Amino acid sequence: MTARETHERSHEIPPKASIKLGPTLDEEVFGEAFNGQVVGRFMKYIAAYKVLLWVAITAVIVFTISSIAIPLIVKNVYDDALKEGATDKSKLTTMVIIFLVAVGFNFVANYFQELIVGRVAERILIDMRRAMYEHIQRISLSFMDKTEIGKLMSRLQGDVAALQEFLQTAVFAVGDFVLLIGIIGAMLWLDWRLGLMTLAVLPILFIIQIIWLPYARQSFLRARVTSSIVSGALAENINGIRAVQGLSREYVNYDLFDIRATDNLKAANKASKFGVMMLPIVDTLTGAAMAIVVIMGGFFVLGGTVEVGVMVAFVLFVQRFFDPIRALTMHYNVLQRAMASGERIFEVIDVPVDIKDKPNAIHPKEIDGSISFENVTFGYVENQPILKDINFEVKPGETVALVGPTGSGKTSTTALVHRFYDVWEGTVKVGGYDVRDLTQDSLGEHVSMVLQEPFLFSGTILENIIYAKEGATREDVVAAAQAVGAHEFIMKLPDGYETELEQRGGNLSLGQRQLLSFARAIVADSKILVLDEATASIDSYTEMLIQQALERLMEGRTGMVIAHRLATIRGADRIIVLQDGGIVEQGNHEELMANSGLYSRLYSMNYASFDDIPDELIAQATNAAQGRAT
Amino acid sequence: MRITRMALQYRWRLFFGLITIFLASGFQLAIPILIGSSVDAALGLENGDLRIANSAVVASIASVTDIVGEGSNPAKTALIIIAVLLFIASVGRGLSAMFQNYMGESIGQGIGYELRMLYYEKLQRLSFSYHAGVHTGDLITRGIVDVEGVRMFVQTALLRSVFLVVLIGTGMYLMLSEDLVLGLISLSFVPFIAWQATAAQLKLRSNWYALQERLSALTKVMDENLGGIRVVRSFASQDHEMKKFDVASNETLALANVQVGIRASNISVMGLAFMLSMAGVLWVGGLKVIDNEISAGELTQFLAFMSILLQPVRQIGMTINGFARGSATGGRLFQVLDISPDIQDKPDAKDLEITNGTLEFHNVSFGYEEDIILNGVSFKVEPGHTVGIVGPPGSGKSTIAHLVPRFYDPKEGYITIDGQDLRDVTLDSLRKAVGVVEQDTFLFTASIEHNVAYGDPWAPDDRIETASQHAQLGDYIDRLPGGYNTLVGERGVSLSGGQRQRLSIARSIMLKPQLIIFDDSTAAIDAATEQRIRAALTELTKDRATIIISHRLSSLMHADEILFIEEGKIVERGSHEQLLTQGGHYNDLYELQIRPNEQSGNNMDEGSAS
């Protein structure tokens, strides 16, 4: 409110500001309420708990029957034990005992239906999520490259939860349905005339519900969507508070937020109008049904055709039979959501795994550390090869630097060594084996990768350096950290190696994260190391540390480095210059400089990194090199 | 409680809500009495008069029956009248319940709206030092979950608690005054269920929080796995990752099972308690009917009373939980709302008046508590001049950038723009005059155009486009399928680090601020592009003061004055050439960066300075 005092609100919506930030109404897709395929596949997950579910269904039925029996017993108490002039008290006692037995059944069945249904639903939720997650671990990277993490996460969470909700409702819907049938049956059995007259109000409720439902659903949905827009705006403002304050956007944002919050207020009030609207309708119909029971039932009792207990039982039934109808219509919503979610879940599970171990794939204990590319052609999009007929060999222990302008195919080359993708043509061999003949696990063991953007997991530094290496000790970790020069800064952290990393290692600098990822690769101790050097500029002090660490890292290993820094490139045993998916020249620094080809031209342009060189200069150098060659 | 005080603003709605509470209770309680009467009337009990006289509502029936009922069967007439009354009572109950719920909800929504706006407003004003000290996720949770908690409290607990007290109280009085023993038996379930429901609700709530924590741990595991998928693949550590997943997921399962267990035993035990006292009423009441102490209708009335009280008694648990949650969440919200921002306009603050735009640091020191970050820094930037600031990480470079727009205030010394102390001018005018381009660029979920125009959403198209072109972003934007309307941010196209920084530069220069500070804002931009940006900005910076903070020397070599900062102090200052000849830290850094490990200085003159 302070803002309102200090700042005259303009109420004018700025033309270049976004108001709607959350999902729109159309994004909340509502599909069909039943999809046989989805249900069929879902059943397979349920099948694992068949026995438990039968117990649960039995419990639901017992619960329903005992719920119907209780008013009937009360009726008998009136008609039998309490008949006018009755004096026999033992009859009453018997009835009360029967009543207690029914109550006992009701209690036990109620407990088990709630417990089993709830637990099985939780279990299936976890099973499905696990199946999807495990599948994602195997899907090819080309799928993952195209897919947003947020979308996958919402399938792993929201969609799975929707199916869980569906399972719970499905069982209770069965219960509601049985209860409804039971009540109707019991009423007709007690007195069909009175039963029919009372039940006459049911269709009215049905019709009203069917008219009401689409409007109500729309308004509930709007309330939900506007509320998530408000939450999104709040979250964004908190995350971007520096930009907001730095650019003095406070007043504009306050006005925009007010628009969204007011929108939500209106939508919520409308939704609550729709919600409470049903209260008087149901009560009116209940009142009408009771009035019918009182008048007609009363007349019948007076006329002697019906006993007073029937009337009492009817009154008790009338108060209960609206609930299952309301619940059943509401379940429809859940069904729709579940079907859409199921489709999305199975969509992920159905993504084919195109990189699989051959049935006879081998896992050699030791390999010699050589890499060779034989006539390799590869790309991501059909007919657009990134690598064209590449041939080269890396001897065990050799360090090879891959250089070349952006888009020349360096990253693809390294990805193929680890068989992240399969080649279109030719063969990639590691240690003399075709990578397709090796298990993926053995590739993971013998080939380590250090990525350009160091990725750390939450957990302690120790856990991060050990990562997946079984049997690595604390001593190994410390030795690795010392080797890469990370030990000093780790020891300066409050808890040393036990320091918990914030999200993605946010409490460390980029250079420090880089060093940790080096240490992780040393602990993994593979014969072959594939490294994508970081391009982002790191302060010079850390830079020096990293250069030294790199040398230690390469000791005794075969190295394939996508090199950006001149120092790294010069230090390599051999340099392979790539351009447009082909190798233009290779050799060590001196040889290439003497060659006066693309490399020497780029090098003499004196940029700290090849990536800094503007495109037009590269084109110039290329032309010059080609001109010289011809 | 402050929330209750807020609710009092909605005087009329509250008043109306209270009226409907009494109406609803009245109608609600009339129903069992009417049902009881109907049974007696149906039995044609002459002595029905006895108990009919008990209730004022039905007392009229007798007299009406007397008038209308001549000739016809008085019992039938009574039945019709009772039925009509029953119908009216039901409709009345429904209508008053509707209004009562609606009043509760609309007051709740209104207060939720108000709190949300206050919270938003407060967060925008709290200074950087506050925001740096709290977890953003926590602030977001307060704004969403806690506001919701307070809203639910107002909506369900506030009016409902009055309703429950009125309804249960009156109901108990009616039953006890009718027949003490039977009343006591039929009410025996009330304290038990009330206690059980409350205990279960509180248990469920604390377990729910634990479960949420476990769930967010599981989310973290999955999110990191997907984000680091290349690391996972390259170490072939899928099995390791599945183990992590299973551990986290089994932990959530265990808590979810506890949750299910509490709910199952709670629901079934409440049902049992109710039906056991019903059995008691049937037995004792039945005996009394046989002994002709009470009528069958009276027994029915007790049974009907019980079923009407069951729902409200169960709700006691929810209401008490609502109070507990409301006070906890309300407390956390007000904690934030009560903070007074440590940086705000002085009461007599004036707008900053720019005469020529000279920035001056006068012996400025800054630090958090014991930690000294800046120590006695003085320098001056005149319009058209550029000051470069360089130094090792943690030397206090960025702090200088944050002090100028008053994200923080200096501990000692002061900063002036054209002779005006920054603390004497309004924040709004100061921040409009100072443009800071930060290293980390936050992208808002909006189009590129809206992101560039963030500081001035009224800016004309050509200004946005010029700024984007100067920041060397224009070509990239033109190549996007949606051009300037392409959605970026969390749910849109993702930009690379360099593109984000260029967007941030465009954002700031579009405002044409009088003072521009680049806070390491070109770290991810390659040197060549940076050159082009600098060339494009010469027009803009020619009559403005510029500060460039960077650890890449090529970004600031051209500055008129370069300050080398170490441990919060200026240790070297001068132009590039002066500093090189001094042969100090700056010179070392230059050697290290420009020609690392180079034996000879060949090609030294070409290239990098171009």
Can you tell me about this structure?
The complex is a heterodimer of chains A (630) and B (610). With 630 residues, chain A is an alpha/beta fold. Chain A contains 23 helices and twelve strands. Chain A folds into three domains: 34-191 and 331-354, Up-down Bundle (ABC transporter transmembrane region fold), CATH 1.20.1560.10; 192-305; 371-629, P-loop containing nucleotide triphosphate hydrolases (Rossmann fold), CATH 3.40.50.300. Helix content of chain A is 63%, strand content 10%. In chain A, the strands form three sheets. Chain A has a six-stranded mixed sheet, sandwiched between helices. In chain A, a hairpin with a 2-residue loop joins strand 11 (574-579) and strand 12 (582-587). Residues 1-9 and 22-30 of chain A have low confidence and may be disordered. By secondary structure, chain B is α/β, with parallel strands linked by helices. Chain B has a domain at 359-594: 3-Layer(aba) Sandwich (Rossmann fold), CATH 3.40.50. In chain B, 64% of the residues lie in helices and 10% in strands. Chain B has a six-stranded mixed sheet with strand order 6-9-10-3-11-12, sandwiched between helices. Chain B is elongated and about 120 Å long. Chains A and B meet through helix 3, helix 4, helix 6, helix 8 and helix 9 of A and helix 2, helix 5, helix 7, helix 9 and helix 10 of B.
Brief characterization of the structure:
Chain A has 630 residues and is an alpha/beta fold.
CATH architecture of the largest domain in chain A: 3-Layer(aba) Sandwich
Which consecutive residue ranges of chain B, at least 5 long each, have pLDDT under 50?
46-71, 596-610
Largest beta sheet of chain A: what is the strand line-up?
Answer: 6-9-10-3-11-12
Low-confidence stretches of chain A: 1-9, 22-30
